[in-house]
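Thread: Newbie trying to understand structure tokens

Hi all, I'm a second-year student working on a class project, and my supervisor (Dr. K.) asked me to get a predicted structure for one chain before our next meeting. I've only ever worked with sequences, so writing a 3D structure as a token string is new to me. If someone could post the tokens and maybe explain what I'm looking at, I'd be very grateful. Here's the chain:
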Amino acid sequence: MSRKLFSLISRSALLLSAVASVFWLAACNAPPPTSSSAPLATSQLNVNLLGKAAQFGLDSQGRLITSAQLISPDGKTALFMNSGTRVVDKDGKPLQSLEVSLDYRPPMPPEGTDVIGLVYNIAPTGARFNPSLQLTFSYGPDEISAGSSEGNLYAALYDNSTWDTILYKRIDTTKHTFTTTIDRCSELAVLLPLQMRATAAPAATAAAAADSNAVKVVVVGTLAHGPMQPTVQAIKDVLSKYGTKVEVSWVDLMTRDGAAYAKANNITAHMNVIINGKVTYMVNGKSVTFQWFEGQQWTRQDLDNVLGSLVSK
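---
Reply by user tm_fold:
Sure, no problem. This is what the structure looks like when written as tokens:
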């Protein structure tokens, strides 16, 4: 081998060795490969807020992978849970579904209070949230009874036949929103303490100058409650047609005497039209019960038909 060729081979070997050293040093000084520490979703929580549905990922312990926020279709109710919130069923397993719906046959509110809006049913029973789930409700200023203050609003859960007051609340009297938190599923209501009346209203006040043979009607309900006003007006519209042929008594369940009347007569519905001692009549071949909201299980036409048939007898 010639000296010139030997020198060329030596220089090439040195160059390759230097390049290898550079790569080795770079590999030694490079940061170790990183792996994502974000938890992986192993199940889905299906949430339905008054008709608005969404899905949120949960890890194996039932913790939310991301924060969960949902607004109802009418924009009046909002739900929020922080990332990491543990959402489990009564057995401690990751919750599969959460539904917030309206309860059209709610329990009676605590004595001396009025329900703002409607009662909400949060299901399934036994499910729990840690930290608590946040709910915000919008309300109308006209829902606040005269003499009462928005600042006195509070929320309560209905558990085991009793109302359990929730301590946390945040009220925006400018935007008319009320925010509270819950740590479990149950029935929920926003309540307003009513200002005590100077004089107690009688349990029932009867229309004057009724005929001796008049049909006896007793309307028992939360007469001043905002959502009940269309029903109250429908009843008044029908009754006005019959004048003194119908003897009407109005019982306000939001008074002490009204609550006592309801207890004595085993009345639990928020609105009842009792006609000659009965709430259920046959109308056009079907059984109709005059309780709760007009337009649901009974209509003003149903009421008119029953009164008309009784008055003509």
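A couple of things are worth pointing out once you decode it. The chain has four helices and 19 strands. The first helix runs from residue 3 to 29. Feel free to ask follow-ups in this thread.
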